[in-house]
Task: structure prediction
Amino acid sequence: MGFLKQCTKCQKIRYWFEFSKHKNKEFGLESSCKKCGKQYYIQNKDKIIKRNKQYDIKRDKKQKSKKAREYYAKNKEKITLKKNAWIKQNKERVYQTGRRTRLKNKEKIAIRIKLWRINNKEKIKITAKLWRDKNKERITIRDKKYRIKYKIEIAAKSKEWNEQHKKDKSEQGRLYRLKNKEKTKIRNQKWLAKDNNREKKIKYSKQYYINNKTLAYLYARHKKIFGYASIKELRQNKNLKDAFELNERSPK
Result:
């Protein structure tokens, strides 16, 4: 009758045709006979069906993903247009789905963004600059709205900052003007050329003179003799007024 083989389950020696075929096993046959295999199937039917189903799903997924990649490569533009159209029609749904995902993976997303920013600093700078150049009007309108909305808060913060950095700010301004004399001159001329700015300057100068009569007089009278470079320098010299006793004789 041909080749004989022992079953690993019942331990009986049987003919080869009493075993199912299996190309990966020894002699191309199953290790257990057909009868034992049938008995095992009856006892573990649900388990086997579930396992086979999972295998089929995995196999099907792999085949589908491969087909999907091939289809996407051929129809990239068509898919993109369709996707964008769907997103426009379902904005709220897309937003809510994205929001739920972000809340679930908050820490993970934060770490990923941080790492990306560290590795793409130059790219971010270039992209930001290009966006600002393209959207100048939009930025101006946005900033204007923000300043109007938070006018009081901005004023309070600016005042606080200026008081804390008064000396540094004035020194920085002085150094900048010394380095960029021509640039400063052109900017001032442009500012004066605008409507009402000349009148504003005259008004401010008059008001400053009224508030600082003695100082203005001293500066005008003794600038050449003592070589004071600025009113600030004159103001810092506390003994000057007493030395010349000009407090009483200051112009009225």
